[in-house]
Specification:
Distance between the termini: 23 Å
Number of helices: 12
Structural class: alpha/beta
Helix content: 40-55%
Length: 285
């Protein structure tokens, strides 16, 4: 298990609800998604002031920065600057807007706040969440990125050097720590080389679980050779899916696939082995 705190917890800090001139609000993409000006203009053209909601801001030393609601704020700026044609009533209504203002946050805290506010609504994709977390210096994302860069892997790419299941990779770091992720990626590459399915997050998760539970009993190089004998990474990925669905007779979920990956990796290690075997989990318990 990882001994490091990777939570999104934010320390207690002052929060107030105040009227703010949207023209004074600044943007910093390090703590959130990039500004889509076309999207903001579309919001401005159809803006209903009473449905504007409450943008979330961070009070920094050099001014107020949008943390959530950036496109709504920019829409108000477009209206105030006359770049979007709206009724006079709407223009007057957005001269000041009610905002939730947080003070005393670090950049990493701002990133956590943005991710927390957007997690339930799924407005932010996992790749954007990862980019924001790295740029803001959040430990979970920074530690994960350090390992991925060591292995010359890019998030979101479908190439032989790309990781697509970043949520699963982050879960590995949260549960087992960056060292286990590093070791698991090394084992996968030693087994299968650099292919898109080598970095399949569920497969890596299975390797990570086995190495985390049995690091004193397993030799990483030997495990890599055992996995190699199971076939290519695409075939191993299919094997995990078959186990997780019990030959397509039941639905699977992320947790079920991870248990299946744990079973598949453990079974690969135990194959043709009379001693130094490791437990194989019952995934349908």
């Amino acid at each position: 298990m990882s001994g490091k705190d990777y939570s999104y917890d934010i320390p207690d800090h002052p929060i107030e609800y105040i009227k703010v001139d949207p023209m004074t609000i600044k943007f910093d993409p390090r703590a959130q998604r990039n500004l889509n000006k076309i999207r903001a203009q579309a919001i401005a053209e159809k803006l209903v002031p009473t449905a504007l909601g409450t943008p979330i801001l961070s009070q920094r030393e050099d001014g107020l920065y949008a943390v959530d609601g950036m496109h709504r704020v920019y829409a108000c700026q477009l209206i105030q600057s006359g770049k979007v044609s709206v009724s006079e009533e709407v223009r007057k209504a957005v001269q000041t807007i009610t905002c939730e203002v947080h003070s005393g946050l670090s950049m990493a805290n701002e990133a956590s706040l943005f991710i927390i506010k957007n997690k339930e609504s799924s407005k932010v994709g996992p790749n954007d969440e990862f980019r924001i977390g790295v740029l803001a210096g959040h430990p979970l994302f920074v530690d994960t990125n350090t390992v991925l860069e060591k292995h010359q892997l890019k998030v979101g790419s479908s190439t032989a050097n790309g990781v697509r299941g970043i949520k699963g990779i982050l879960s590995i770091v949260m549960e087992h720590g960056p060292e286990i992720l590093d070791l698991s990626l090394t084992i996968a590459e030693d087994a299968w080389g650099r292919t898109p399915d080598t970095w399949h997050a569920v497969t890596i998760g299975g390797i990570a679980t086995v190495m985390s539970k049995h690091s004193d009993e397993l030799n990483p190089s030997e495990l890599a050779q055992k996995l190699k004998r199971q076939g290519d990474p695409t075939a191993f990925k299919a094997k995990i899916q078959t186990i997780a669905t019990n030959n397509n007779t039941r639905a699977d979920g992320t947790r079920g696939r991870l248990k299946a990956a744990h079973l598949a990796v453990a079974a690969a290690w135990n194959a043709n082995r009379r001693v130094n075997r490791i437990p194989v989990p019952n995934i349908f318990e």
